[in-house]
Design goal:
alpha+beta; 10-stranded mixed beta sheet; globular; single chain; 4 domains; Jelly Rolls; Glycosyltransferase
Length: 724
């Protein structure tokens, strides 16, 4: 039996190549090189299993006998290392040989020697344990200590939101070959660990999902045809000795001759933001690609060499898409592709806001797409891992920062109001709903309760007013008290539903939801009419159940009129956008949604397509030919993917009641302009072709179609539009 998890690393030491003992931190612009760290070990005859457990901070790459270990792209999961240190487990059984073997790691700085991560400064360090089990029951363990050897690697610089500086002249090609002599290497030094408890990584690994050859559109400027996350591999086809700069961006300069740094976050080492520097050694055919950092980009500019080959590698966490949708509208098909590209590009161990500018795990951004990502991607383990970071970040009062894991103090005082912090309710709720796995809710229940108690402490009534509000709204934002209180009621209803499923007390949450509604109506509903008539206020009030049934039709008409007056465009911010597809979809305004989505005369999703930006921007008001004065922020923000749920929940009509796929309703809708569609999600396929609907389901389902209701077993069916 291998070392049990409660004894993991009990005898291992944290080690570093250079344990800085002076009262200082490495300068951010000139840290020591990323170190090679190795350990030789012997494997005897009759071995049964060999397992490596390892954590390399800030980021690492792992090797065995000269080969990179599978699934070791950015293996170190971001966390607050003072609370939790996430370690990886690799099965080496098929990779080792009887006799001498060599384990190796390269440790990048990324989060450690980064002045923007004040809680975790320091040099790269590692803790490791290799367990060898023999068929006769013998056990051997190799643990990290001063018997490991260290040497500077060619990677001279690596920081988050920057890039890497690599000097090929320092490269040691066979450094991890067990036959390579390590004469002159020094012993690794024992150093302090960050203090957090160890936990085994559950988040899926990152992988390279595509390699795309760049098209040179100006001297040294390459277009990869889509906005993506990852990096490029540069191959020099001549002998070069001078540094080669590789600059990444999703924007070009106005003359389209260079990449632009507009929209990129300013960092402490600004000259290196989203830039790699490759110093070749003069060998024809040399290649370079970064080991520790990733970028968000469509364009790359290579400066310093003209005879090069440039290949982009698309990299993200492996949350496999579980859905597909295709129809006879080219614009809708492209919108779906844009949604998928943005969601996948932002899946970087958790849902980051964008892969280029900030690379921050904003809680509210994750909350906004929690349903879409839970429903349409194999994302449970990624969300579960992220929620463990929420547990670490939450204060005893229930208070949460706006970014998790939190790397600086300011996320505890900005963008962490009720709407953003509701992520701790919404993400477990939707992860449970679409997976049927209640573990995430059971493990987070105390934290969710604590968050709700904190919300309660922020007001003398049930009206809340301390959130972010309707972010990136084109029109003036509605009162934060309306959107916050709407989320507060949604949270209470979710808590009630989860409590019922777990066999916990439901009454307190149902009462809270009713109290919130009463307080809201006392202030904001007069004679059956909402006092604030802004679009998001109307939509939020309907979605959260603040209005009575007989009040909804007139408020819906008000919302529809606003959309029409805006030229069939949605000009709201993210809270209105999150809820409008459900509100209009539920109450039969799918023709309106279709008309808005396919309208490229106004800012919106169709404009994204006609502008060819290939992913979803942070806001509708971005710089383009039709809008030259727009913003130059992010062109790749996943929270705009909230539209994607409409294709499945209202066009195909696939909706769950409760948690898991036990109670399923299929209610495909007629949408004016859509004559044909084919939707598939998690074992259910719904197709429309002229007047027929074809449904194939692995689960029993209730059909609602043209006034007809019927229960069906799992199977394949064809229904006419006018069902008898």
């Amino acid at each position: 039996m291998l070392e049990s998890e409660d004894l993991m690393f009990e005898r291992a030491k944290w080690i570093a190549a250079d344990n800085i003992k002076e009262w200082r931190h490495p300068a951010p612009d000139s840290p020591p090189p990323a170190p090679y760290i190795t350990r030789d070990f012997e494997i005897g005859e009759g071995f049964k299993k060999v397992v490596l457990n390892v954590s390399g901070l800030g980021q690492a790459v792992y090797y065995l006998n000269g080969e990179r270990l599978p699934n070791s792209i950015h293996p170190t999961h971001a966390s607050d290392y003072t609370k939790s240190v996430v370690y990886n487990t690799f099965d080496l059984t098929s990779l080792v040989s009887v006799g001498k073997n060599r384990f190796g790691a390269i440790l990048g700085h990324i989060y450690l020697a980064d002045p923007e991560n004040s809680f975790r400064m320091g040099t790269p360090r590692m803790i490791a344990q290799i367990d060898i089990e023999y068929a006769d029951g013998r056990m051997e363990s190799i643990v990290s200590n001063s018997s490991f050897l260290a040497h500077p690697s060619p990677t001279l610089f690596s920081l988050r939101r920057c890039g890497e500086r690599y000097d090929a002249n320092r490269n040691i090609p066979d450094w991890c070959d067990p036959n390579y002599s390590q004469h002159g290497w020094k012993k690794a030094e024992i150093c302090a660990g960050p203090g957090g408890d160890f936990r085994k990584k559950v988040c899926p690994p990152k992988r390279v999902f595509a390699e795309i050859e760049g098209k040179e559109i100006a001297e040294g400027v390459y277009d990869f045809g889509e906005n993506l996350s990852g990096w490029v591999c540069v191959r020099v086809n001549d002998e070069y000795f001078e540094p080669i700069e590789i600059k990444y961006s999703e924007w070009l300069t106005d003359d389209k001759l260079h990449v632009s740094d507009c929209g990129l976050q300013k960092v402490n080492v600004n000259e290196m933001r989203h830039k790699d520097v490759f110093i070749p050694s003069g060998k024809k055919g040399e290649r370079f690609e970064p080991l520790f950092s990733y970028h968000g980009f469509r364009y790359v500019e290579v400066i310093g060499a003209d005879n090069v080959s440039v290949i982009a590698k698309k990299v993200h966490t492996d949350i496999t898409p579980l859905s597909s949708f295709e129809c006879d509208s080219d614009i809708l098909n492209e919108i779906r592709k844009y949604c998928e590209r943005s969601v996948l590009a932002c899946a970087q161990g958790a849902m980051v806001d964008c892969p280029q500018r900030e690379q921050n795990e904003w809680t509210g951004d994750g909350m906004l797409t929690a349903e879409v990502v839970s429903m349409q991607y194999d994302s449970f383990d990624m969300f579960y891992e992220w929620m463990l970071n929420f547990k670490d970040a939450q204060l005893r009062s229930g208070f949460l920062p706006g970014i998790i894991p939190c790397r600086l103090n300011w996320p505890y005082s900005f963008a962490n109001g009720l709407d953003w912090s509701s992520a701790i309710i919404h993400i477990p709720y939707y992860a449970y709903k679409y997976s049927g796995n209640k573990r995430i809710v059971e493990d987070l229940w105390e934290n969710m309760e604590r968050a709700m108690r904190y919300f309660e402490s922020r007001s003398e009534s049930c009206l809340m007013d301390f959130g972010v509000g309707d972010w990136v709204s084109v029109d003036p934002r509605p009162p934060i008290e309306i959107t916050d209180t709407a989320y507060y009621r949604i949270d209470a209803l979710m808590m009630a539903e989860m409590a019922k499923s777990l066999g916990k007390d439901v009454a307190e949450w149902e009462k809270l939801a009713e109290d919130i509604k009463c307080d809201f109506r006392e202030k904001y509903v007069v004679d059956g009419q909402l006092a604030d008539r802004s679009f998001t206020s109307l939509i939020c009030s309907i979605y959260s159940g603040m209005l009575n049934d007989d009040e909804i039709p007139s408020h819906l008409e008000n919302a529809v009129d606003i959309v029409k007056r805006n030229g069939y465009a949605f000009r709201c911010g993210i809270h209105g956008l999150r809820m409008l597809f459900d509100v209009f979809g539920k109450y039969g305004y799918n023709d309106l949604i279709y008309k808005v989505l396919t309208n490229d005369e106004e800012m919106g999703y169709a404009r994204f397509v006609t502008d060819g930006i290939t992913t979803l921007p942070e806001e509708f008001y971005y710089k383009s030919k039709k809008n030259p004065n727009g913003t130059t922020s992010s062109l790749n923000h996943h929270f705009m993917a909230m539209v994607d749920g409409w294709f499945f929940r209202y066009v195909a009509g696939v909706r769950l009641e409760g948690f898991g796929w036990k109670t399923l309703t299929v209610e495909p809708r007629e949408v004016n302009g859509l004559n044909r569609f084919s939707a598939s999600i998690r074992g259910i396929r719904v197709e429309k072709n002229k007047n027929n609907f074809m449904i194939s389901s692995e689960y029993p389902f209730k059909l609602l179609l043209d006034g007809y209701s019927g229960d069906y077993a799992a199977g394949d069916y064809v229904f006419s539009e006018a069902k008898n």
